[in-house]
Hints:
Radius of gyration: 31 Å
Order of helices and strands: HHHHHHHHH
Largest sheet: none
Distance between the termini: 108 Å
Amino acid sequence: MAGRYRTAIILALCLLAPLATNAATPEVKQPAWAELSADQKKTLAPVAKEWDNMPATQRKKLLTVVRRYPKMTPPQQERIQARLKQWAELTFQERELARKKYQKLKQLSPEERARIQKKWQEYQNLSHEQRESLRRKAAPPAPAVEEAKVESAVAPAQPAEVPPVAGNPAKPETP
Length: 175
């Protein structure tokens, strides 16, 4: 009886071993910039400087887009190029913020995402002037530091009085 259990366990381990090695297989290394084809480089030109420092998962996603790129319509291709250029111009902090917002958006219910998408479409349909007006209203107030700079340029600050201290030659003690 014990022999059967031992045989069953050994058999199960032998059958599961290939699955364990597949799970531990590292992700396929994505090509360096120098290894890309001329067409790939042309499409990915906006992110050329960052390519070799990108995580493999991001390179893989971009290469998937590049494979579909020739079949896209010209407006779709322009959109891809514009987005790649915008992404390349973002700072590290701005990219992190965009990633966090994307993750939050993915966690919303389909109804909530549809509501946000509808609002975004309404915003896109506004005129340039209306959008600028909304941006100004939503912008945080100007920092007080700028006001302080202006005030100090107009009227220089008066030197602070030194309190009378024994032994201070600048301010003699008064009896």
